[in-house]
Write a structure and sequence with these properties.
Number of helices: 3
Largest sheet: 5 strands, antiparallel
Distance between the termini: 64 Å
Length: 142
């Protein structure tokens, strides 16, 4: 028996009831985040008060955790009731296993700078070794 005969009259599509149509693959597939982009998002979550500082315990080394804890005391990127976003994040690799990165963080009309250093350990995992926020809040440029 042909499948054409099992379809209701006038029905032209080949999908069957109860089946999920195949997903169309987008023309652009989203690339995985680079380590500095991933860390920018995580640091933003902590510095905006969305996540607690201890969320970064396994992802920091040296003084970075203390720096992050001190910076996060007042949730400096969470002011104003708006959710901050990473507008841009760039990194350079001055040496093998080291990335120095900076990100611009926008909260409504305010933009702040965030700088951080990542170091790759012997286990090949990246960890934040330093973090700093730009001092003065600047208006967003459109």
């Amino acid at each position: 028996m042909s499948t054409d005969r099992t379809r209701p009259a006038g029905r032209r599509d080949r999908s069957r009831p109860g089946t999920v149509p195949p997903q169309r693959t987008p023309h652009r597939t989203r690339r995985p985040l680079r380590p500095h982009q991933w860390f920018a998002e995580r640091l933003l979550a902590v510095l905006s008060g969305q996540r607690p500082v201890h969320w970064m315990l396994g992802h920091t080394i040296g003084e970075a955790y203390d720096q992050l804890a001190e910076l996060a005391l007042n949730a400096p990127l969470g002011a104003g009731g708006r959710r901050p976003v990473v507008r841009a994040c760039h990194g350079t690799q001055p040496a093998t296993g080291v990335v120095e990165a900076f990100a611009s963080i926008a909260t409504g009309e305010q933009v702040r700078a965030m700088a951080f250093r990542l170091e790759q350990g012997p286990d090949l995992r990246w960890r934040c070794a330093a973090v700093d926020l730009g001092g003065e809040r600047l208006p967003a440029v459109r």
